[in-house]
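Q: My labmate handed me this sequence with no annotations at all. I'd like to see what the chain might look like in three dimensions before we decide whether it's worth expressing. Could you predict it?
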Amino acid sequence: MTQPGRRTHRPSRPDRSHPPRKPDGPARPPADDPARRAALDTLRAVRADDAYANLVLPKLLRDRRISGRDAALATELTYGTCRALGLLDQVLSECVDRPLSKVEPVLLDALRLGTYQLLRTRIPSHAAVASTVDLVRRDLGSRVTGFANAVLRKVSELDEDAWLDRLAPDATEDPVGHLAARTAHPRWIARAFADALGTTGDDLADALRADDERPTVHLVARPGEVSADELAAMTGGEPAPYSPYGVRLDAGGGDPGDLEPIRERLANVQDEGSQLCALALTRPDVDGPDVRWLDLCAGPGGKAVLLGALAAINGGTLDAVEPTPHRAKLVEQITSGLPVTVHVADGRAADLAPGFDRVLVDAPCTGLGALRRRPESRWRRQPSDVGDLTKLQRELLVAALDLVRPGGVVAYVVCSPHLSETVGVLTDVVRKTGATPLDAREFFPGVPDLGAGPHVQLWPHRHGTDAMFCALLRR
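A: Here is what I predict for the chain of 475 residues:
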């Protein structure tokens, strides 16, 4: 974004006053490039179908039998392009003399993929341009290959830093906007991070940079089946630093669904921060029986598995509520064999008998804390989403406090640092219900940098986890 009064030189653009010339001579056949093809097909599904890259790409790689270096390249290009989408579009807007909305969507997907390679990988420029043009030729024929080639060559005139020097707001005048541009985040999300951290300085920069990196895969060992040490030995990972059931895998690993412990239902994929929040619910003392637990927002079932396995060890049961039938089916499948009863119902009116000893409210949220795992979400979410979500979050938390018995514990968890979804919801519900906040930090043993409390906010740059928020309340 050019600052007022700041003169900039814009790179020359392809002339669009006439249709692009056809290249001289016969069009050469496009090269077969399974990695880039997989990346491009995933990007199209994300754009056209609102799909999630982390669900589409692994299946596509399996179906096409893409593995090894090709799979690694496809993964990097797919997730990287999704993360950097806003930056890529800013750069492309400088190199195309029409609104990007007027560019054929299939062509724009390819231009984004090519621009990512030019700006954020070590792939040589000529290879990035040529491979992208080959994809365009295969999908659209030769009619637009000249256009694609010209645009990408204009992109390649500057590297990422030089483009950002031109496009990013001034760091002194707009520090949040500057960091947002430098880390490929929408400004409103960078602002939400700054508000939660209480700074626009180095801590914010570290948080946004960590959020822009590809995360490692975290596994959770199923309690009673396998230990974290055993799971680490089986998978080649390392025991997690904070969760007694967690394992962290190398970032360069393949599809975790192919791991034998996952196939054998000894473990699941789950961020360590999610594990810690579920475990925190189980740690405060409760007077009397402690055998009836509830997961009020259970889909797709990760926390229900962990809580169900712990309940089984302690001779208890878990009720799991999920309003969407297909997600409820996923919860049933993943918790099979555990003392878990799944209810297809709205958690705000679940028609369950009150008197639960512990209740988890893992509420629907913006997901701003897991953008590194679902990178396309940073460009889908809008500030207008927050209002409806906070209303739902308050209603769910109130319902949980009605369902827990006196002296019981409720954990309010969201994967977001947005203050409206965290402290705002918590403060409002405590005022209305009279519930007593517990100091949640006590129930995250060994985890550093938890702030002033009583709630806990985890961060990728501090803890290597998603930015999970957890508050504990006693009725």
